[in-house]
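Bug report (template v2)

What were you trying to do?
Predict the complex of my protein with S-adenosylmethionine.

What happened?
Run completed; filing so the output is reviewed.

Input:
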Amino acid sequence: MKMPTDVIREEIRQHGVISFARFMELALYCPETGYYETRQDNVGRGGDFITSVSAGSLFGELLAFQFAAWLTELRDADCGLRMVEAGAHDGRLAADILGWLQIHRPKLFSEMEYWILEPSANRLAWQQETLKIFAPRVRWFSDFENLKLKTQNAKLAGVVFSNELLDAFPVRRLGWNAREKQWFEWGVASAGEKFVWARWENAECGMRNAELEAVLPDGYTIETSPAAENWWRAAATVLTRGKLLAIDYGFTAEEQFSPARLNGTLRAYHRHHVSDDLLARPGEQDLTAHVNFSAIQLAGAAAGLKTETFCTQPQFLTRILPAAMAEASWVPWNAKQTRQFQTLTHPEHLGRAFRVLVQSR
Ligand SMILES: C[S@@+](CC[C@H](N)C(=O)[O-])C[C@H]1O[C@@H](n2cnc3c(N)ncnc32)[C@H](O)[C@@H]1O
C-alpha cells in the first residue's frame, strides 16, 4: 500500500511540478492511505479538530427538527421524500438525525429514506457500522452519477445537505504576479525529502477586479474551489424539489480579498494545532480552506435554484429554537444541551466563521 508521500513524490518525478489541488487530493484522498481514508477518529476531541457534529447530538437534533418541517411541506410531491447527506464521515450526524426522527417524527421516519453519498469504501464501512440499527431506512450511493443511475433518474424531493464537506474539496491555490499583472497557480515540487512551493503556470482567476489588482502585493494568494462548485452544481441539478443546504466556514467573494490574508485561508490541522506548513506530513494532517459562498451560490443559481438563506450558524440555529421549544419534548433544556448550544453558537467556538447557505427549488 503506497503512502501519500510516495505517491506524490512519484507523480512529481514523472510530471515535474504538480498543482497544489492534486497534492491536496492525494494527501486527503489517496486510495487506502489518504488522511480521510485512514482516520475514522480524526474528527472530535481525541482527533485533529472538532466539528459541530462532534460537539454532541444537539446539532443533528436541531437539523432533524428543521428538515422534518421542510419535508412535511413537500408531502404533496409525487415521489418519495429523502434526506441526502454528503461528507457523512463516520455516520454520526446521520445517527443523530435518524435517532431524533424515529422518536419524534415516527410517521415521517417510516415514509422517508436517508441517502448518503460516499465515494470511499472505508468510510462506507464506518457508516454502515454506526447506522446498522437504521439499516432499512438508509441507502448509499458513491456520487450523484451513481445516484441517478441506480434510481433511474427518478425525481428527488427533500433536502440535500452537508456539514463541512465543501471545505474538504481540493482547492487551487492562486498567487498574484504583480510585475506581469497576472495570476499564477501555486504548484508543488520536491527538494530532497521535502515538498516545496513552486510558482507553476499562469492561471485564469474567475474573480478579476482591476481596482483591487492595482494594489495587490506580489505573491498575494487566494484559493478557488472548482471541485466544490461542480459538486454543488451537480447537487442542484439532481434536486427536483426541496432544499440544498451547506454548513461550512467561509465568506463571500467580497470578504475574500482582505489585506490581512496575504497567504489565503488554507490551513493544516494536526492534533488541534493549526499550522501554515501545508506541505508537511501529507496524509497525516487535515488540509482545509474557507469556502467562497458567492461562487457556490452562483453555481446553484445557474442550475435554477433560488437562495433562501445565507446567514451565520448561530443565526440559523437560533431561528429554529422558537418552533422547537413550542414542542414539549424540547423543554426543559438540560445543562448538556445548553453547553452544546453555546459551543455551536459562541464566537469563540463554532459560532464565528460558520455560515449556512440554503438554496431551493
Ligand atoms: C471535515 S470532514 C466533515 C465530517 C462530518 N460531516 C462532520 O461534520 O463531522 C469532511 C468529510 O467529507 C468527506 N468527503 C470529501 N469529498 C467527498 C465527496 N465527494 N463525497 C462525499 N464525501 C466526501 C471526507 O472524506 C470527510 O469525511
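What did the reviewer find?
The longest strand covers residues 241-251. The CA atoms of residues 101 and 159 lie 14 Å apart.
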